[in-house]
């Protein structure tokens, strides 16, 4: 079959030897990459990584000129991969990193920088270099700024060796351009007269020692939508003025006495730390919350009073905490989780295995969350079960008409676990499925299968003997 020659725009199709001449002529007219408009070439360059852009700069003088306006200044430990320095000790690698950053900084022009990223374990003694980088970042009017100096997991975390971040440099020249700011392992001093960042939408602080009051900064960031604080040192986080635009709030492992942020439009809340007062205003739009409590004491009263009051509107909630088997008196909360549909509890259980009251307090959930549809209880018991007969009337009946799915993991067969399971089976009138799994899952501590084999086998045996009744067999699944 004869192929037709390629058509040239504005010409009629040709045949025979004349078509061959046309094909040869048009081949030389193909557009070369460097013939494209400058704006298009800049767009192509902006989609390349730093390494790729540097390689492109040596192709021609035009690419070398375009490279000087590269919109991303990104240097991480991965930037040094492939270098001989990566196989040597840390000091040569750090020196090579600093020299590399300085070399690229001198080549680039101070223009509108889209992204400024430096991720490497640098310290206070490198302040002269870092100050120049931050000055360049500010002069370039960078939109997204990341300075992460966090050490590795095994490195020294001496707080006295932290770099003091010059916030005044960033706010003075490019404060109105910054849309996101991420800082790691630095000192951050907040002067009372700081003007904030008018267009800042995302703020992330990790291992940052904050001197001053965040009330001097956060309320002046009028469009802030995303706030994350991890392992930061703060006396308290109390903001008198509401953060209207804040949608996401994460506070993890910070040294805090109090958390008080009015965020009426908050949709996601993540917290990990000690039991402290938490006030979020009235976040009626909140969709999901995750709370991990780090403590060695019983948290039941705090969870079902303080946390319930703070998160009364949430439809999906996950909480990790510890309880003791011994009964500790608690006062029922007047607040109800009326919007709660899904609840995940990761519970460490400590205390005598023959005592049931501490675990059976969880039956209060049916009263606390009247619209609950899914309940997941991940349990981790630190003692083996003992023989005993569960009480059939251990807790006051409270029929629940919406709960459809229940899953209990880490079921070692403690009396409290058995009584709780029987209570849920009897009172969840719309229950469609209940899963009993003796294996510990999704807790902070998960024992090995070989080490937990005895408890798993015992939990399975107790579940089959005490729960596998004719009245429950349509909805009950026991995994073994």
Helix fraction, binned, reads: 25-40%
Mean pLDDT: 84
Q: How much of the residues is beta strand, in percent?
A: 15-25%
Helix tally equals 12
> What's the main sheet like?
15 strands, parallel
Structural class: alpha/beta
Per the principal axes of the C-alpha atoms, what is the gross shape? elongated
Rg (C-alpha, Å):
31 Å
What strand order characterises the main sheet? Answer: 1-2-3-5-7-9-11-13-15-16-17-18-19-20-21
The end-to-end distance, rounded to whole angstroms, is 67 Å
What's the total number of strands? 21
As residue ranges, the low-confidence spans are 1-26, 83-88
Q: What kind of oligomer do you see? A: single chain
Summarize, please.
This protein has helices at 16-27, 38-46, 50-56, 61-67, 90-107, 127-139, 167-174, 300-310, 357-360, 365-368, 415-427, 453-466, and strands at 72-76, 115-119, 144-148, 163-165, 180-184, 186-189, 202-206, 209-211, 226-230, 237-239, 248-252, 259-261, 268-273, 278-279, 288-293, 316-324, 342-350, 374-381, 405-409, 433-437, 476-478.
């Amino acid at each position: 079959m004869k192929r037709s020659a390629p058509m040239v725009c504005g010409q009629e199709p040709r045949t025979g030897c004349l078509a061959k001449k046309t094909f040869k002529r048009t081949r030389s007219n193909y557009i070369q990459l460097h013939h494209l408009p400058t704006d298009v070439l800049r767009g192509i360059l902006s989609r390349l990584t730093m390494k790729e852009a540097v390689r492109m700069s040596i192709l021609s003088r035009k690419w070398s000129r375009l490279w000087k306006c590269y919109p991303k200044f990104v240097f991480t430990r991965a930037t040094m991969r492939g270098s001989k320095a990566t196989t040597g000790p840390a000091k040569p690698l750090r020196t090579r990193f600093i020299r590399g950053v300085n070399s690229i900084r001198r080549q680039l022009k101070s223009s509108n920088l889209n992204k400024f990223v430096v991720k490497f374990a640098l310290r206070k003694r490198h302040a002269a270099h870092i100050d120049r980088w931050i000055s360049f970042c500010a002069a370039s009017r960078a939109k997204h700024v990341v300075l992460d100096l966090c050490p590795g997991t095994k490195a020294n975390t001496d707080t006295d060796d932290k770099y003091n971040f010059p916030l005044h440099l960033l706010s003075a020249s490019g404060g109105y351009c910054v849309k996101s700011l991420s800082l790691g392992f630095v000192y951050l001093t907040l002067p009372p007269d700081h003007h904030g960042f008018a267009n800042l939408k995302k703020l992330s602080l990790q291992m940052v020692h904050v001197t001053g009051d965040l009330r001097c900064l956060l309320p002046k960031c009028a469009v802030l939508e995303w706030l994350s604080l991890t392992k930061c040192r703060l006396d308290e986080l109390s903001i008198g003025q509401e953060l209207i635009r804040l949608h996401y709030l994460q506070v993890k492992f910070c040294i805090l006495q109090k958390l008080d942020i009015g965020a009426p439009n908050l949709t996601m809340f993540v917290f990990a730390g000690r039991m402290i007062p938490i006030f979020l205003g009235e976040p009626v739009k909140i969709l999901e919350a995750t709370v991990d409590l780090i403590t060695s004491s019983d948290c039941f009263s705090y969870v079902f009073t303080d946390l319930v009051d703070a998160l009364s509107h949430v439809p999906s909630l996950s909480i990790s905490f510890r309880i003791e088997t011994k009964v500790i008196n608690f006062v029922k909360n007047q607040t109800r989780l009326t919007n709660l549909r899904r609840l995940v509890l990761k519970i460490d259980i400590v205390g005598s295995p023959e005592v049931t009251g501490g675990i059976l307090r969880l039956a209060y959930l049916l009263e606390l969350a009247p619209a609950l549809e899914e309940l997941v209880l991940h349990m981790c018991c630190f003692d083996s079960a003992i023989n005993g007969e569960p009480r059939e009337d251990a807790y006051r009946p409270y029929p629940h008409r919406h709960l459809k799915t229940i899953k209990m993991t880490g079921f070692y067969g403690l009396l409290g676990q058995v009584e709780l399971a029987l209570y849920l089976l009897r009172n969840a009138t719309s229950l469609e499925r209940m899963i009993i799994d003796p294996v510990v899952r999704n807790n902070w501590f998960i024992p090995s299968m070989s080490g937990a084999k005895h408890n798993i086998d015992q939990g399975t045996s107790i579940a089959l003997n005490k729960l596998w009744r004719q009245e429950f067999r349509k909805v009950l699944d026991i995994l073994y």
